[in-house]
Write a structure and sequence with these properties.
The protein has 11 helices and 3 strands. Strand 2 (155-158) and strand 3 form a beta hairpin. The protein is mainly α. Strands 1-2-3 form a 3-stranded antiparallel β-sheet, with no helix packed on it. The relative contact order is 0.12.
């Protein structure tokens, strides 16, 4: 198999993104956006004109691309022209649209109880409880390591998440009890040679990698289906709890885990 050839323009753009410490997902998105522009132009983006930029934005609008995706695509294109090509005149032709503000769907107290009740596996219950009880994002849950759990202060340390920020979240005794229960049965086939503090709480199917957010999302939707929840909710809904105590639900979940509820 012949090696993949990277054009000088793309290589320079990658170097510019690396120099600015853009994350891998952002870099992939920017590259994809510029490839989409090149496909529309049928030539290299460095030959684009102001009229080409206008036509491309019109094309995105006419083909029904959502406002969110249009803004994402044009953000990558603007990086190319503003940073890599130093074409500030073309970057100025790019505009973004205001996205509609929507109130997120939330689950009721009854729905949240049903969700945790139908999570039959300990792994699913711990994962969902972390998202709900600690308000963690999906990516934050799957990337937790042993060192992130501070039992002395009852906190979880979240490192370099959204906005490249660290933060602490409270760790309830009930949630800590669930984590201890999970640690006893957690798969450890890929832990050889890895120090205890650096081990993933939720290892994936590949050595040295945590489980993916896609796997977590699948567990969440399986639980919502089993709980009979018809709303189009996502994992992020766990971060918008109903007006009740998070600790109460997690406590009930942990008792159910050990079979101590009636």
């Amino acid at each position: 198999m012949s090696p993949v050839t990277v054009s000088p323009l793309r290589q320079r753009m990658i170097e510019d993104m690396n120099a600015r410490k853009l994350c891998a997902a952002t870099q992939r998105g920017h590259i994809h956006s510029c490839k989409r522009l090149a496909a529309f132009l049928k030539r290299s983006p460095d030959t684009a004109t102001a009229e080409d930029i206008r036509r491309f934005q019109l094309h995105l609008s006419e083909t029904g691309v959502s406002i969110c995706n249009r803004n994402r695509i044009m953000t990558g294109v603007r990086f190319l022209f503003r940073v890599t090509l130093r074409r500030l005149d073309l970057a100025a032709e790019i505009y973004h649209l205001r996205e509609p503000q929507k109130i997120p769907l939330v689950m009721s107290l009854d729905e949240m109880k049903r969700l945790l009740a139908v999570a039959t596996s300990l792994k699913a219950r711990v994962l969902l409880s972390l998202g709900y009880g600690c308000g963690l994002r999906a990516g934050e849950v799957v990337r937790l390591k042993v060192k992130d759990i501070d039992r002395a202060q009852n906190i979880i340390r979240v490192e370099q998440s959204k906005g490249r920020k660290d933060r602490h979240v409270m760790l309830s005794p009930e949630m800590l009890a669930l984590l201890r229960q999970w640690w006893k049965v957690r798969p450890s086939r890929y832990d050889a040679g890895i120090s205890l503090q650096e081990r993933w709480l939720f290892p994936g199917n590949r050595a040295g990698k945590p489980m993916t957010t896609r796997q977590l999302s699948r567990l969440f939707h399986e639980a919502t289906d089993a709980a009979g929840i018809k709303k189009s909710v996502t994992l992020h809904a766990l971060r918008h709890p109903p007006t009740c105590s998070r600790t109460t639900l997690i406590s009930e979940s942990s008792k159910r885990c050990w079979g101590t509820t009636n």
